[in-house]
Each structure stands twice: as C-alpha cells, then as structure tokens.
Amino acid sequence: MGRPRTPLLDRRRIGxxxxxxxxxxxxxxxxxxxxxxxxxPSALYHHVSGRDEIISLMREEMALATGSGQDEQVxxxxxxxxxxxxxxxxxxxxxxxxxxxxxxxxxxxxEPFMHAMYEEVxxxxxxxxxxxxxxxxxxxxxxxxxxxxxxxLVAPPVMVSDVARETAPHLSAVLDHTPTDHVRAEKAFxxxxxxxxxxxxxxxxRP
Length: 207
Known about the structure:
There is one protein chain. The protein has helices at residues 11-25, 30-37, 41-44, 51-66, 72-75, 79-95, 101-105, 112-128, 132-153, 169-175, 183-205. By secondary structure, the chain is an all-alpha fold. Helix 6 (79-95) runs parallel beside helix 9 (132-153), helix 8 (112-128) crosses helix 9 and helix 9 runs antiparallel to helix 11. The chain is flat. It starts with 10 loop residues before the first helix and ends with a helix. Mean pLDDT is 86; it is low at 1-6.
C-alpha cells in the first residue's frame, strides 16, 4: 500500500483534535486522542513529546483560530481600552472551548507565541505607569475573571433556583430582575470587567 499521500498526523491536526476531545469529554488522554485521530498512541510521539506539548498545541490552535492577542491595533489603544479588547477576545476563545479551560489554565505557559502576547500586555501596563510588582497580579486577576466567565457562558442560564421567597426575600427580589437566559452571563461579564478596570485605574491613580 505504501505511505498515504497526505500524512495522517501533523501538529495542527493533533492540536485541533485535542481541543475537540477536551470539549466533548472534558479531559485529555494520549490513548483517547490517538483513537480520535485513528492512529496508535505511539504514532503521536513522532510529533510531540507528551501531554504538556499537546496542550501547547491546543493553545496554539486557539490562538490561530481567534487571532487572540495578535492584532497590533489592540495594543495601540489606551491601556484600559486595550485590556478590555484583549479580555473580550480571550473570553471568545475560551468560551468556544470550555472543556479545555481546566487544562489550559493549569499548565505552565512555555510557548514563545504566548510569551509574545504577555510581552505586549506587560509593555502596555508598564508604559501606563503601573509598578513592576503590580503587572503580573493585574494580568492574573484579569485572566482568572475571564476563565470563570467563559465557564459561566456555557453554564445553565439559571444557576440559582428553587429559592423560597419567605426565607430569602432579598435574594428573591434580585432574582426577579435577573435574566433567565445567557444574557445573565454576558451582563455579569460586562459588569465585572468594568469593575476590574475601575479598580486598576484606582491603583494607577494612587500616589
């Protein structure tokens, strides 16, 4: 039969298949990924060194698909507008692959293309006047919020239910004014992002 004209595997296919598997199963294993790709597990090791490198390929696939952090126009905006644009593009990327969030959020960022994105954010914040010891906590705070918001977007529209009005009248009153569709999560993201950026501005304004 000979070798197939089109290789069964390449790094882009591995990354894309790993993303699909994480979305479908909420987990990633080498045997399951090999099965999804129709190859033996040993075949994957011709292209990757192991699970961590596969997760790196998942990050790269998301970055290529969304262009997250790659648009120079984003970083030419005032710092707070740039952070908002970055957060929204980040949210869109993670919301498209919620099953991958636990994997991507807990694996160290060793990829040069991710370092390049963080370099842009660090330069933005330092130029704005933030202290060096504030920059990574600000980035981590924003990312933690985005990751949680991405999961909220795919959660059930109603997360607080069966509330007894007699024992929780205040909660019942606010729930009466809470959307019962996915507008709930979108509104929470908008309010939360505005609050974070307001807090960041307050840090910058302090002596």
